[in-house]
Amino acid sequence: MTSFPSAASPFNLPGGVERFLRDRQTPAVSLRDRMQLVIRLALWNVEQGPGGPFGAAVFESDTGALVSVGVNLVTVTNCSHAHAEMVALANAQQQVRSFDLGTPGLPPYELVTSCEPCAMCFGAIPLSGVRSLVCGARSEDAEAFGFDEGAKAKNWVTALEERGIAVARDVCRDEAMVVFEEYRKRGGLIYNPRRGR
Fold this sequence. Notes:
alpha/beta; 5-stranded mixed beta sheet; 39% helix
């Protein structure tokens, strides 16, 4: 079973994440399986965890082996950059002991996220070294619930592909949007809503 970083990582995962993952350690072969795990993780973070309605994970692209996970920890850490993608990427880098997930000799890694990246997370993806990105909900879905996704170029997919990062969108999109609905029903905090100011 993968052991997830704690002390070495800048982002400590909530205690219940290990329990959540205990029965989910088999390789997730299909993109749908990987996304299902991430969506369930985001929902767990809304229902039992400390944060927002976003989840992410880094997998070995070829085998589906889970390397790390991340949930949104913005409100619990008082850290605006503790987005699920940032947490998953930082923890993956600690897990493989390299700041570059694209280092020669390492397998290709894939970031799977319950929602398309915001402007900040988009900027971190090419620097992280992942070779592919898989997204559930779209940025406009998050924005429809009030989240500020930042100023991201309309051609962001092309920009990543030009850097050798494959992008898959709308994987289980409707299921990912259900997590936003649950967050709203529970009165979840919409943080940093600065669009249009």
